[in-house]
């Protein structure tokens, strides 16, 4: 590795910092970029900078968007009155890929975790309450993960919003305990959405 020029070593070092990328993979990717057409490398660099500069949180659901309002919130084809509440934008993408849900989303931007100092005020729970009131929401589907924190967050939300009289359901089994939604296959996610159960 030390036989590479400093410019290549610098690139390998930066690529190796990416999640799931080890030093060997970083070396292969760096060598690919070295031998790829200059235009291809420029397009990759430009795409990364454009993403970093333009992506923001949707003003309504707090998902990722290039515009003030994301394409799901802006769509007239979605079903109003039902919100699917998830932890992160990647969870929303996973459910969208399953094709099981046609309503709208609300991204909490995390889960309750007292040990990490994350309480209700650190999540988008206040905004969820505002949306329930202003958008005349009839049902919320709690699609947080099945980790201890995800379950605790779902229980908290169910108890907090139950007095409002709306239907509160939880995605059904099929998603493994401790599983992360973005890694669950689409068939399992579809089954979990279709067979969701109501909080009693």
Overall mean pLDDT: 90
Report the CATH topology name of the largest domain.
Dna Topoisomerase Vi A Subunit, Chain: A, domain 2
| Helix coverage percent | 40-55%
Q: Would you identify the CATH architecture of the largest domain? A: 3-Layer(aba) Sandwich
According to DSSP, the number of beta strands is 7
Poorly predicted regions are none
Please tell me how large the radius of gyration is: 21 Å
The succession of helices and strands, N to C, reads HHHEEHEHEHEHEHE
List the helices and strands and how they pair.
Layout: H1 6-15, H2 23-35, H3 38-54, E1 56-57, E2 64-65, H4 71-74, E3 82-86, H5 89-98, E4 104-107, H6 125-134, E5 139-142, H7 148-161, E6 167-170, H8 186-194, E7 197-198
Parallel strand pairs: 3-4, 3-5, 5-6
Antiparallel strand pairs: 1-2, 6-7
Helix pairs in contact: 1-2, 5-8
């Amino acid at each position: 590795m030390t036989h590479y020029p400093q410019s290549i070593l610098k690139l390998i070092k930066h690529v190796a910092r990416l999640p799931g990328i080890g030093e060997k993979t970083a070396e292969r990717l760096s060598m690919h970029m070295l031998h790829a057409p200059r235009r291809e490398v420029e397009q990759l660099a430009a795409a990364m900078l454009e993403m970093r500069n333009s992506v923001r949180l949707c003003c309504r659901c707090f998902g990722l968007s290039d515009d003030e309002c994301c394409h799901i919130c802006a769509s007239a084809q979605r079903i109003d009155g039902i919100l699917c509440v998830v932890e992160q934008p990647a969870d929303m993408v996973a459910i969208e890929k399953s094709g099981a849900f046609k309503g709208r989303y609300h991204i909490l931007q995390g889960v309750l975790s007292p040990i990490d100092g994350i309480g209700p005020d650190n999540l988008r729970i206040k905004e969820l309450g505002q949306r329930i009131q202003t958008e005349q929401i009839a049902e919320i589907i709690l699609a947080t993960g099945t980790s201890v924190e995800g379950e605790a967050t779902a229980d908290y939300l169910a108890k907090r919003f139950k007095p409002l009289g709306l239907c509160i359901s939880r995605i059904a089994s099929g998603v493994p305990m401790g599983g992360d939604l973005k890694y669950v296959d689409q068939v399992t996610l579809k089954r979990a959405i279709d067979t969701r159960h109501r909080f009693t």
